[in-house]
Amino acid sequence: xxxxxxxxxxxxxxxxxxxxxxxxxxxxxxxxxxxxxxxxxxxxxxxxxxxxxxxxxxxxxxxxxxxxxxxxxxxxxxxxxxxxxxxxxxxxxxxxxxxxxxxxxxxxxxxxxxxxxxxxxxxxxxxxxxxxxxxxxxxxxxxxxxx
Amino acid sequence: xxxxxxxxxxxxxxxxxxxxxxxxxxxxxxxxxxxxxxxxxxxxxxxxxxxxxxxxxxxxxxxxxxxxxxxxxxxxxxxxxxxxxxxxxxxxxxxxxxxxxxxxxxxxxxxxxxxxxxxxxxxxxxxxxxxxxxxxxxxxxxxxxxx
Amino acid sequence: xxxxxxxxxxxxxxxxxxxxxxxxxxxxxxxxxxxxxxxxxxxxxxxxxxxxxxxxxxxxxxxxxxxxxxxxxxxxx
Amino acid sequence: xxxxxxxxxxxxxxxxxxxxxxxxxxxxxxxxxxxxxxxxxxxxxxxxxxxxxxxxxxxxxxxxxxxxxxxxxxxxx
Lengths: 147, 147, 77, 77
Known about the structure:
The complex is a heterotetramer, with 2 copies of chain A and 2 copies of chain C. Chain A has 4 helices and 8 strands. Chain A is α+β, with helices and mostly antiparallel strands. Chain A has one domain (2-140): Aldehyde Oxidoreductase, domain 3, CATH 3.90.1170. In chain A, the strands form 2 sheets. Chain A has a 4-stranded mixed beta sheet with strand order 1-4-6-2, sandwiched between helices. A 4-stranded antiparallel beta sheet of chain A has the order 5-3-7-8. Chain C has one domain (2-71): Ubiquitin-like (UB roll). In chain C, strands 2-1-5-3-4 form a 5-stranded mixed beta sheet. In chain C, a hairpin with a 2-residue loop joins strand 3 (48-51) and strand 4. Chain C starts with a strand and ends in a 6-residue tail after the last strand. Chain A binds chain B through residues 13-14, 16-17, 24, 28-44, 46, 94-95, 106-109, 111-112, 115-116, 119, 145, 147, and chain B through 13-14, 16-17, 24, 28-44, 46, 94-95, 106-109, 111-112, 115-116, 119, 145, 147. Strand 2 (34-41) of chain A pairs antiparallel with strand 2 (34-41) of chain B, so a sheet runs across the interface.
């Protein structure tokens, strides 16, 4: 179970691959039969509404512990073997990865459901705030899309 | 939208990364905000029931078109931008990746739901058959786990 | 003018037939194809049928040059 | 003996306060902490409160050395 806040660009596939090697070292190979990965990235709204970049603020300390609580809740609700949550903060460019959630389990239902649970909980409870940079200045995103 | 049948070991993260580069070349960067990846791999049942390896048979031609139909159905049901399905056949060792499903979309709900839909449809309709190799010989898996 | 008949997985091994050619006769159903090739009156429970690589039922009428396949429940993924 | 008060995102910018220290008084609620630091009688609609980095309501009583944070609805992910 790991949570990382990244101040600069991260490469989601290598983060997952690296974590998976650690998992295999810890619990042995061939223990998980299913893994799910969600990657959220910054869309390029340039033409539609002039958003050219974004800044993500967080609450150092509380953000990490909120993400750890969410991962623990998922582990209590589903028979999962491991989770990885990576979230970017700071200045973000279009197409950059913002969030990565990976879940490993023996069977697919738990991997799908726990992954979605973590993402929905993260969106509603983890202290992150997005500010969009437009041609007319910055504006704070007021609420998250429900899905 | 791509479907690949692999006769030998494949590396899921590089398959997804490669397909994503093609997608970005086709539709431009920053078009998708969400992607989901499911990876099913062979578990190691050595201690529990002596399964040391597996062989996966398929129906060349029908298998590919069944997977393409499933991907098309997902595209009709959800607003998704692209899908990638990779499935291994032939002789498989514990920990090898068996199946990879990746979905790209603007928002997360479609990416999660379409990915799960593709996996459930693949499990129930795509012509693949697993034969487990045990110390007392081979045995065909009789039915798929529901989830 | 013939029909190609294929068997997969456990069914292929039990029958010891991978692929067979059958002379075409007008009005032939998938079940009759099974009967002619295997000599068995009925399909084993849960056997699936595909005609030209699409799922079909045992009473479907086949055409010349069709490919008819019989196989057990699928277990991929 | 004090309380650390933090503000984030839009609230931080509007109030132009990042962090403040407040003298501790027994029985102080989170709402009173807000009032003392900002001079405003009520919290803006939807403002969230965390005490020692856990979500709390405005009527929670704070203790000495607590960290009290105020911030708008979260928009991560």
